[in-house]
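For the sake of transparency, this paper describes our internal protein records without simplification. Such a record has a labelled line for the sequence and another for the backbone structure tokens. Nothing more is needed to write down the fold, since each code stands for a local backbone conformation. For reference, a complete record is included directly beneath this paragraph.
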Amino acid sequence: MEYKIKVCIDTNILLDFVFADRERHAIAQQLFHLIYTHKVEATVSTQSVLDAAYLAGKKPLSGISDYRTAMLYMLMRTDVGYVDSFDLRDALENTHPDIEDSALISFAYDNCCDFFLTNDKELLSREVPRPMKVMTPEEFVDKCRA
């Protein structure tokens, strides 16, 4: 059985994927193409899906409708898991001030992700459990092309 790289996708990338008016829409599309063509495995937390839905609902016009359609399509190729009590405990015991980010990092680590993909500048500079790495979608797509 061939090993595939596994990534965890942060909330901001879900929004980039759905909305063409976002600056990083094109790279999010490229990332999801890698997922849809089975070159990469992906997981996302229910927390991220719901947070992105909340933010999408604040967009004018068809924001939430576009989001629903894109997420239903995404679910065909992406694993969805939940932040459990161990992830929350880890986040609460961690000294980092962003509890949500800490919980998502713990979730990604528990789900054996090789990479946590985000555009969050603070998260990009943060230390995470090895061997998992945090990087932008641009960096990851470039790495896959190499």
